[in-house]
C-alpha cells in the first residue's frame, strides 16, 4: 500500500511533545494531578508501568538471574540512621545554597545563571542580593517510633546501594558466596532536589537498579572492565545506537575521593547528553566505613592464601526512570506518509514494549472470534483489544502506544483461519494462520542476547 | 529408598523456628542488622526476594494482565498532602495512646493487657499510672522543598489505594476504559506502628497489592461477590487449604462508616487467625471526597442512559509481606525419616518457589557437563548449582530453601544422556533424558489456573 510509505521522519526534538504524548496516553503524568501536582513526583500509568516493569525485569534477568555470581535482594527504604552517617550522606550529601534577600527564594549556589523570579526581564539571580552559600542536605528525613518527642530521626534512602553494604556479610554467608560475587537490588530512592526538571529526568522520588560487585584488590581493573562492557551491551539491547549512546570517563578532579575510576553511560536527550547509568570503582570505602561505624568486621579471608582483606567494590547504577525516559525519547518520531497523512510512532524494542499485540476485528460483528483470539493470547502476552473506530485510526492509536504488532481479524478469517499481522515500524502486513500467531509473536518479542 | 520415607511430619508451631530459618537461609532478616536493626523494618535476601517477586508477578498476572478490565499503574510514594486530608488520614488515621507516669513508656490504649516493662513480674500495664488516651497519627511525615522553613509537610503513603483515586480520571480517559473497570498497583506503604510484631506481619514499611474496581451503584453486590470469589481462588492457588484459610465478614459495628460490606481473608498463623487480604465495598466515599477536596468532578456519565453518577468502589487489598509470610509458614515442616534422620522442608508451590531446580553433580569431576546443563536452564528458570558436600547434605539444603527439583548429574549421565530428578516433597527420584529436563520443569512449575 503506497499510502503507508514514510516520506519524512522527524525524531524527538522538543521534550514538550513527549510530555504531551505521555500524559495523553497514560505513560507518565504528574503525581496528584487533580491537586495541581507536587513538584518532582510522577505517576506511571498503564503503559508506563508495563514499560518500566519490562525494563526492570530485563535488568534483573541479565544482572541477577542469568548469573550464578550475583544475588538479588530487596531492602527496606528506611534503614538504621547510622547507615547514612557511615556512608557520609549525613555530613556531605548536600548542595551549597544561596538565598536572595529581595525575592526570598533559594537557589543552588552553582545555578544562579537563571532569571530572578522577582524581576525576570531585568536581572539574573546572580545579580540579586545573595547571602553567602549555606549547605542544604538532600536527604528526606522522617521520624519513626511511638513517642513524638523521643522519636528517632530516620532517612529515606538516598541510594539503594548502602543497604547492600549493610547486608553484605549476611548475604555472603547465607547464600554461601565467595569473592568475587555481587549483590543487586531495584528500588525507590529519594533526594530533595532543589530544582526538579527535565520531566522525570531529575525528580525527588526515583528508582534505581544497582549492583555492587565485591572483588579482590588485584582484580578491580578486570572487573571494572567486565562490567563496563556488560552494561554497555545492555543499553545496546535497548536499541540505543552509537549516535545517542556514549560512555564518558570521569576526569581525576570529578572523582569522589574514594573513587578510583568512574564511567558514565550517557544518552543524547533533547536537553543534552546526560547520565543514565554510572559504573564506579568505589574501592573499599563503603565496607571499611560500615565496618568502622558498626563495629562488625566486614573483611573476608581468602581460603587458599589465608589473606585477610576488605573487598573492593565495582558498582553499576542504573537510573530506571532515566532509562525509561531515554527509551521513550529514542523511540518517539513523527512521520509523514506518502498519502499526506502523518503519524506519531513509538518504535520501542518489542521485548520492552508495554503491549505486545493489539487484536483488532475489522467489524464489531467479528467480536466473538476476535475475543477468542484475544483470550488465547492474553495468558502469555500483554495484549489489547480494540474495536472502536476505523481500522486506520486504530492502527495510529497502537503506533502511539508503541505496540509492535496489530492483528486484524477480518471477514475472510473465519473461512481461511488466517489473520493479518501489521508491523508497527515498517507498516508491512502479512497474513498468517491463526494458530501460528503465538509462535510468530514469541519469536519476535524475545530480548536480544 | 526406604531411608527417605517420612515417619513423622510436624508443621510450624513456633514462629522462632521460621524466623531462624529465614535468617540462616537469607529469606528475610532485620534491616540494618549490623547496626542492631531498626524496629519494624525488614530486608529480603536472595530467596525471600525471589519468593516475594514471584508472588507479586502472579498477582499482577491474574489481576491485571489476564483481565482487559483492569489497568495497572505505579504511583509515587509521596503524593500531594491534600490527598491525605481528603482520604481522612490526616484527621482520623490515629491510635489512642496512653503514657505511663512511672515507666515513661507509651502504649496503645486498647493494648494495655501486657506486663509493665518496669515491673514485668508484678503488674500489667493497665495497673500502671496511665494518662488519659491521646491520639497519635500513624502516618510517617517528611518535608519536601528547597527551603527548610517554608518546606511543605508531606506524607509517605499509608496505603497504595489513595493515589489510585487521584489518578482515576486520567486513567479512565487515557486508557479509554468504561465503567465497570479497575485500577491496580503494587507498592510500598508506611505506618508508624506503635508496636511492630509477629516477624514481618506487622511492620512499619510494607508492601501492598491493591485493586480498586469502579462500578455502577446497582452492581456493587455483584462485583463484591465476583471479587470475593476471585481472590479466594487466588489464595487457594498458593496452596492454602481450608484448614488454614477462611473468610470472615465484618460485623456491622466493625465497618468503617463509609463501608457497606467487608470480608477479610484470614490465614491461620501460629500466632492466630490473621488478615492477609481485605475485600471492601468502599461505596463512593473516596471519589466523592477527592472530588470535593480537589474541585475536580470525578463523576461519570452512562453513555446509554445519560445518567451522571459517582462510581462505587470494590477494593481488594493484599498484604504482600503477610502473604509471603503465610506462604513460608504454610510450607514449613520438620520431618523425621525412616532412617532416623530429620529434615526441615519448605514445601512451597513450585510456581512461586524462589529456585526452581538445583543442578548437583555427583562429583566435582562432573563439573563441566553439569555447568553446561545449568547454563542451558538458567536463561529460562531460576536455577542453582551446588557441588559442595555429599549429595544427601545438598538435598537437605535445597529442601530448606524450598527448591522443588534437584537434578543430579552422575557418572552414567555422559553415557546414557540421562539425569536423576528428585522431587522435594515426596523425595521420589526419576531418571529422565537431559533434553527432556526443560519440558519436565516447565510443565511442573506452571501456576494453577
Characterize this entry briefly.
Two copies of one chain form a homodimer. Chain A is an alpha+beta fold and 449 residues long.
Q: What does the model show?
A:
Chain A has 449 residues and is of the alpha+beta class. The first copy, chain A, has three domains: 28-81 and 141-328, Bira Bifunctional Protein, Domain 2 (BirA Bifunctional Protein, domain 2, 2-Layer Sandwich); 94-137, no CATH class; 355-445, Anticodon-binding domain (Rossmann fold). The first copy, chain A, is 28% helix and 29% strand. Chain A contains 13 helices and 24 strands. The first copy, chain A, has helices at 15-24, 46-65, 82-86, 89-92, 161-166, 168-174, 220-237, 285-294, 320-331, 367-378, 391-401, 413-416, 437-444; strands at residues 6-11, 28-30, 42-44, 70-72, 94-99, 106-108, 134-137, 141-144, 152-155, 181-190, 205-215, 245-249, 261-269, 272-283, 300-301, 308-309, 312-319, 332-337, 342-346, 357-361, 383-385, 405-409, 418-423, 429-433. In chain A, the strands form seven sheets. In chain A, strands 4-10-11-17-14-13-12 form a seven-stranded mixed sheet. The radius of gyration of chain A is 26 Å and the shape is globular. Chain A starts with 5 loop residues before the first strand and ends in a 5-residue tail after the last helix. Chains A and B meet through strand 3, helix 2, strand 8, helix 6 and strand 10 of A and strand 3, helix 2, strand 8, helix 6 and strand 10 of B.
Amino acid at each position: 500500500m503506497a499510502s503507508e510509505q514514510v516520506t519524512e521522519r522527524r525524531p524527538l526534538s522538543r521534550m514538550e511533545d513527549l510530555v504531551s504524548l505521555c500524559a495523553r496516553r497514560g505513560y507518565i503524568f504528574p503525581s496528584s494531578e487533580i491537586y495541581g501536582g507536587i513538584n518532582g513526583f510522577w505517576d506511571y500509568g498503564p503503559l508506563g508501568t508495563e514499560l518500566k516493569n519490562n525494563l526492570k525485569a530485563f535488568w534483573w534477568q541479565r544482572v541477577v538471574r542469568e548469573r550464578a555470581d550475583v544475588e538479588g535482594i530487596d531492602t527496606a527504604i528506611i534503614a538504621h540512621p547510622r547507615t547514612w552517617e557511615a556512608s557520609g550522606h549525613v555530613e556531605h550529601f548536600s548542595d551549597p545554597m544561596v538565598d536572595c534577600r529581595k525575592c526570598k527564594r533559594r537557589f543552588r549556589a552553582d545555578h544562579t545563571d537563571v532569571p530572578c523570579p522577582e524581576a525576570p526581564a531585568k536581572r539574573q539571580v546572580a545579580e540579586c542580593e545573595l547571602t553567602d552559600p549555606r549547605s542544604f542536605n538532600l536527604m528526606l528525613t522522617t521520624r519513626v517510633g511511638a513517642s513524638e518527642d523521643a522519636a528517632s530521626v530516620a532517612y529515606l534512602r538516598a541510594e539503594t546501594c548502602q543497604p547492600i553494604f549493610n547486608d553484605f556479610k549476611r548475604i555472603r554467608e547465607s547464600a554461601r558466596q565467595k569473592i568475587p560475587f555481587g549483590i543487586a537490588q531495584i528500588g525507590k530512592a529519594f533526594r530533595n532536589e532543589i530544582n526538579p526538571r527535565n520531566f522525570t529526568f531529575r525528580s525527588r522520588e526515583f528508582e534505581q537498579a544497582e549492583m555492587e560487585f565485591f572483588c579482590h584488590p588485584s582484580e578491580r581493573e578486570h572487573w571494572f572492565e567486565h562490567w563496563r562492557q556488560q552494561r554497555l551491551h545492555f543499553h545496546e539491547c535497548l536499541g540505543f545506537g552509537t549516535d545517542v549512546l556514549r560512555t564518558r570517563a570521569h576526569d581525576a578532579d570529578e572523582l569522589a575521593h574514594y573513587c578510583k575510576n568512574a564511567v558514565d553511560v550517557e544518552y543524547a536527550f533533547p536537553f543534552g547528553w546526560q547520565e543514565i547509568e554510572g559504573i564506579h570503582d568505589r574501592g573499599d570505602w563503603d565496607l571499611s566505613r560500615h565496618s568502622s561505624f558498626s563495629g562488625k568486621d566486614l573483611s573476608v579471608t581468602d581460603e587458599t592464601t589465608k589473606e585477610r582483606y576488605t573487598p573492593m567494590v565495582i558498582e553499576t547504577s542504573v537510573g530506571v526512570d532515566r532509562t525509561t525516559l531515554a527509551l521513550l525519547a529514542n523511540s518517539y518520531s513523527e512521520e509523514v506518509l506518502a498519502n499526506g497523512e502523518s503519524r506519531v510512532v513509538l518504535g520501542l524494542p518489542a521485548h520492552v514494549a508495554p503491549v505486545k499485540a493489539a487484536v483488532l476485528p475489522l467489524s464489531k460483528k467479528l467480536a466473538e472470534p476476535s475475543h477468542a483470539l484475544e483470550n488465547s493470547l492474553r495468558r502469555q502476552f500483554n495484549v489489547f483489544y480494540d474495536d472502536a473506530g476505523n481500522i486506520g485510526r486504530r492502527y495510529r492509536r497502537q503506533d502511539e502506544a508503541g505496540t509492535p504488532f496489530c492483528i486484524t481479524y477480518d471477514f475472510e478469517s473465519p473461512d481461511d483461519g488466517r489473520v493479518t499481522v501489521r508491523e508497527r515500524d515498517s507498516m508491512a502486513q502479512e497474513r498468517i494462520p491463526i494458530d501460528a500467531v503465538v509462535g510468530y509473536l514469541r519469536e519476535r518479542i524475545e530480548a536480544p542476547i
